């Protein structure tokens, strides 16, 4: 366990030294929330747009940070042979994956701390009394998307990884019920969407923060993703 | 023996990088795996480090299987990669502290940085270090393991003279303290300075595996430089030993060097009114041995 915290500290230090990347991670969700909160153009179904947007953008932030940012950074670490070098130390693959997931969780806490006041300023009020469940959703979402990001980063060449991370991000963003309601999607797409981790996370967050919609189904779907994705990541991860 | 390699073969698809190689690396010695680029040195080292699986054959490092018992081995080995291995924006002090903490052997990062001569660069990032400084930082990371065995892949590549001295000193000190050093290099002169044991590679095969002294001190040589057009047959008959033209006016006499032999050569050159531009007596170098064993290939 000690090595996990040693690695976590190193990852956070490195992140702090890459300020531009951190800034981008924070800026994109903020811009999305500020823009779509002010311009009511998204098909949000029966839900008030700001109630739909705040949990959805938190889900987007989690997906961006834990999948794309982590996945691309890890891909570069592979090309710089950083992973290979770490592979010669007592740090295990599992410990590295846990340290990386904890790192993105810290970043997400900062993102959420920035996003919530913007949501409040735009009139959003959490109606649910289950904030603890929202925290569970964030943890499960982090584990899921970090797992997905690391599966790609751990098994693809750096250039292919970069394209794959962005491609998957786009698919999950559009089909994943984060900024476009599942109800607005055509029948087959809506069915696919329900099984996606992005939909599950967004729905889980909406239910716990807004106090409406389904809770159990998305929670179950997300839990399965949160167990399977990091496990596959740890198994498939290659040091070089 | 710290490393025992038996009938190792490494293939990449259709290409055989290492073919049926066997050798040992003695404990507390400096074993240099020597050969030109593409000879199979790095592939062999990577199997020993546990990064690569052998296509066939077996490897034991400190009695462990590097593939199956990799985690146990990581606590006991230090690794220096051929290049890279550090995030470009990472600072020297941070990365050394990080590795010291990962190994958990209570090594002081500041002392380690001083040992490799990077104290003045402790706050610099990896990307701002010169090639030689990056090599020294990589060596520090390997030493953070306080290892029983050190694998160093081309440790002096791109390093200036002072840096080479530092690295050589560290290698000698490590061996004196009982650490086994296994080093891959294509630099024959550098290898001769640090090796106690040499494994010569050529095209994926081992062509010699013996203590340095056995490889180089078994033969004395005499080499001289004159014009390109010297009649080697006539000279050979005159001095009673075979003379070979090595190219560029350099000739080697395949006989034990002696003052008498030198006298005969200089006398013959004088008689033929040919210049003597240089003469080199002494023990065979690793490069000589390599050329002899490979029939002149490098």
UniProtKB/TrEMBL annotation, chain A:
ABC transmembrane type-2 domain ranges (all copies): 16-240
PROSITE patterns membership: ABC_TM2 (PS51012)
Membrane association type: Multi-pass membrane protein
Entry-linked InterPro entries: ABC2_TM, ABC2_TM_bact-type, ABC_2_transport, Nod_factor_ABC_transporter
Pfam families assigned: ABC2_membrane
TM spans (from-to): 21-40, 52-76, 97-120, 132-153, 160-180, 215-234
A single GO molecular function term of this UniProt record: ABC-type transporter activity
GO cellular component, one term: ATP-binding cassette (ABC) transporter complex
Annotated keywords: Membrane, Transmembrane, Transmembrane helix
Subcellular location: Membrane
Protein name: Unannotated protein
Automatic annotation (TrEMBL), chain B:
Record SUPFAM superfamilies: P-loop containing nucleoside triphosphate hydrolases
Keywords from the UniProt entry: ATP-binding, Nucleotide-binding, Transport
CDD domains referenced in this protein's UniProt entry, alphabetically: ABC_DR_subfamily_A
Pfam families on file: ABC_tran (PF00005)
Single annotated GO MF: ATP hydrolysis activity
Domain (ABC transporter): residue spans on this chain: 3-228
Lineage: unclassified sequences, metagenomes, ecological metagenomes
Protein name: Unannotated protein
